[in-house]
């Protein structure tokens, strides 16, 4: 009888697609896996999922953190209800959950952000006073740094919900991750893709991580085969920077790393909510020192910010 591995995921359409991507990757990495195991996808609702009762309140206004996207899934993993969890790494807390480990990172999707708008092909062409809908403080700060004459309004919900709100003219434009739009097959809705010089993505944006129980050596060894090492190193660098900057949903922080040969390069920033002050740093080092590079760049940014910045 085949062993059933239960793969836990959030219940949004994008999350289910991402779970299917993970499932396919696992099967493709093991020639005999299908003879021994089958994978059952287990959708789960988390406290971080948008509810209409919350209206358009941001996580800052709600006083919550990134762990709301993963808490229920991680608890199910620890209790044995599921055997593997798939997460969008940009939504995962930088504080490791005791008893759990990330056995693999799948190859990164396009990490950039995209503008979606029925009235302009790019952010430069939006009229003054246009409403850009986003509940991401990182996107808000960078939009206002580029175009302080625009009005940034909160806009929450999964991708489909936000597209419907845009169609209903609740906003003149919104900004979404290219990777998510591509996975959903709605990349035709993109008006333009931001150059990273103008809109640096969230740390680990576009990366899917596969989490297992630390003690489950058999499942860990199966999952480890799908690990994409360059993506893994980039995630380590970006998340180390985020951890150094006390990153949560409450502070505008952005970071993007890439590996070239034996070197890793990291570009990162922290900003005030109004985008009037942006501290941006770049660095590079040996790729095996990915975490140390993240810590170093994070410390360099922190040194230029006022002491009370992270108490916001």
Structural notes for this entry:
The radius of gyration is 19 Å and the shape is globular. A hairpin with a 2-residue loop joins strand 11 (253-260) and strand 12. Strands 2-1-3-10-4 form a five-stranded mixed β-sheet, with helices on both faces. A five-stranded mixed β-sheet has the order 7-6-8-5-9, sandwiched between helices. It has a three-stranded antiparallel β-sheet with strand order 11-12-13. The protein is 31% helix and 24% strand. It is α/β, with parallel strands linked by helices. It folds into three domains: 1-107 and 207-227, D-Maltodextrin-Binding Protein, domain 2 (3-Layer(aba) Sandwich), CATH 3.40.190; 113-193, D-Maltodextrin-Binding Protein, domain 2; 229-305, Porphobilinogen deaminase, C-terminal domain (Double Stranded RNA Binding Domain, 2-Layer Sandwich), CATH 3.30.160.40. The relative contact order is 0.15. The chain contains ten helices and 13 strands.
Quick tags:
3 domains; D-Maltodextrin-Binding Protein, domain 2; Double Stranded RNA Binding Domain; five-stranded mixed β-sheet; 13 strands; 312 residues; 10 helices
Q: Whole-number average pLDDT?
A: 91
Q: Order of strands across the biggest sheet?
A: 2-1-3-10-4
- By DSSP (H or I, 4+ residues per run), the number of helices equals 10
- Please identify the top-level CATH class of the largest domain: Alpha Beta
Order of helices and strands: EHHEHHEEEEHEHEHEEHHEEEH
The gist of it:
This protein has 312 residues and is an alpha/beta fold.
